[in-house]
């Protein structure tokens, strides 16, 4: 059944209102209802009296737009193969996508929200957007696996000689797997082109969408991977600064190793939105808390840092994204 322009406009407006309402409800629930908000607020107020805390918090807040600007540039460099988008327009779409992502499993709504702001073919747009997400996932996995190689000798005791050989095998495996992941990403246009030749005739229509991957240049993919690595350094650096802001004395290398393991495990867990903040806090306490020997006060500070970085990097951009949610059109306009 073909819908009239008026009905489409009404449905899109209704969908936008629902997205805004659910996103605001979700942020409220995550921050004020779930977890121990009273303890978080008490620790935040207590720490705010410190000049160093305010300085570090200001630095983390400044890094938030840089984090999402890097994501914007990365997404724009891919989506330009379908539709020319300016940096400001792409940035608004990214913010709208964050709002849309809050209440979806594993935040898949983030790329869907961006796709719904474009006029280009949505399936092709989704494929390019997913390619950007895969690049970030590869960086997270590689960083986590490398961190594991430094973590094991420090925190896992070896009693038998065969365990040394097992660790050597793990090193080789990590190096090979990391190289393979990067190579597959950079070779994805070639792989897609060859895959097209193997597709059965009745599935040939898939090529109409896959061809957009074949068009991506090697230089673009390399740039996307580098932007993902730079963005990873930014948001992991934010986490480190917040740990220091809450009074946790931990060397930078140690912190980055444990933070990388935290993000590695988080990437492997298919979280449901309502449990996202709680799982983040638990995983952070498990890994970063190892350095502090299970100290209760340290665990509280780690949880506060994990909560605050979620508020800064997700909740605040999502609230800003509410201003641009009108860009999202769930139902195509005529």
UniProtKB/TrEMBL annotation:
InterPro entries, A to Z: L-PG_synthase/AglD (IPR022791)
Record keyword Secreted present: no
Membrane topology: Multi-pass membrane protein
Cellular component GO terms, alphabetical: plasma membrane
Record keywords, A-Z: Cell membrane, Membrane, Transmembrane, Transmembrane helix
Regions crossing the membrane: 12-32, 52-70, 126-153, 165-186, 207-232, 252-275, 282-302, 308-325
Subcellular location(s) per record: Cell membrane
One Pfam family of this chain: LPG_synthase_TM
Main location class: membrane
Coiled-coil region list: none
GTP-binding among keywords: no
Name this polypeptide is given: Lysylphosphatidylglycerol synthase TM region
């Amino acid at each position: 059944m073909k819908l009239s322009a008026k009905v489409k406009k009404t449905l899109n407006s209704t969908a936008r209102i629902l997205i805004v309402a659910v996103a605001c409800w979700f942020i409220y629930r995550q921050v004020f209802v779930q977890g121990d908000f009273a303890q978080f607020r008490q620790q935040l107020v207590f720490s705010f009296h410190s000049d160093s805390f305010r300085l570090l918090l200001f630095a983390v807040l400044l890094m938030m737009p840089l984090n999402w600007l890097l994501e914007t540039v990365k997404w724009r460099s891919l989506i330009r193969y379908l539709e020319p988008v300016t940096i400001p327009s792409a940035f608004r779409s990214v913010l709208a996508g964050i709002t849309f992502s809050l209440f979806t499993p594993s935040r898949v709504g983030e790329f869907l929200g961006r796709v719904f702001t474009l006029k280009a073919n949505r399936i092709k747009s989704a494929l390019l957007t997913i390619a950007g997400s895969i690049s970030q996932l590869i960086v997270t996995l590689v960083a986590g696996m490398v961190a594991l190689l430094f973590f094991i000798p420090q925190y896992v005791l070896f009693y038998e000689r065969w365990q040394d050989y097992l660790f050597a095998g793990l090193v080789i495996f990590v190096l090979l797997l990391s190289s393979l992941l990067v190579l597959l990403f950079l070779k994805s246009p070639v792989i897609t082109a060859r895959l097209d030749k193997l597709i059965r005739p009745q599935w040939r229509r898939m090529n109409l969408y896959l061809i957009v991957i074949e068009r991506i240049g090697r230089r673009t993919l390399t740039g996307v991977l580098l932007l993902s690595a730079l963005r990873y350094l930014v948001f992991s650096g934010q986490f480190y600064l917040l740990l220091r802001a809450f009074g946790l004395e931990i060397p930078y290398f140690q912190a980055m190793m444990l933070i990388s393991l935290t993000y590695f495990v988080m990437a492997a867990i298919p979280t449901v939105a309502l449990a996202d903040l709680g799982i983040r806090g638990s995983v952070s306490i498990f890994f970063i808390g190892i350095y502090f020997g299970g100290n209760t006060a340290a665990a509280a500070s780690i949880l506060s840092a994990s909560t605050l970085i979620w508020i800064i990097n997700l909740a605040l951009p999502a609230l800003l994204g509410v201003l641009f949610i009108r860009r999202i059109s769930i139902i195509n306009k005529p």
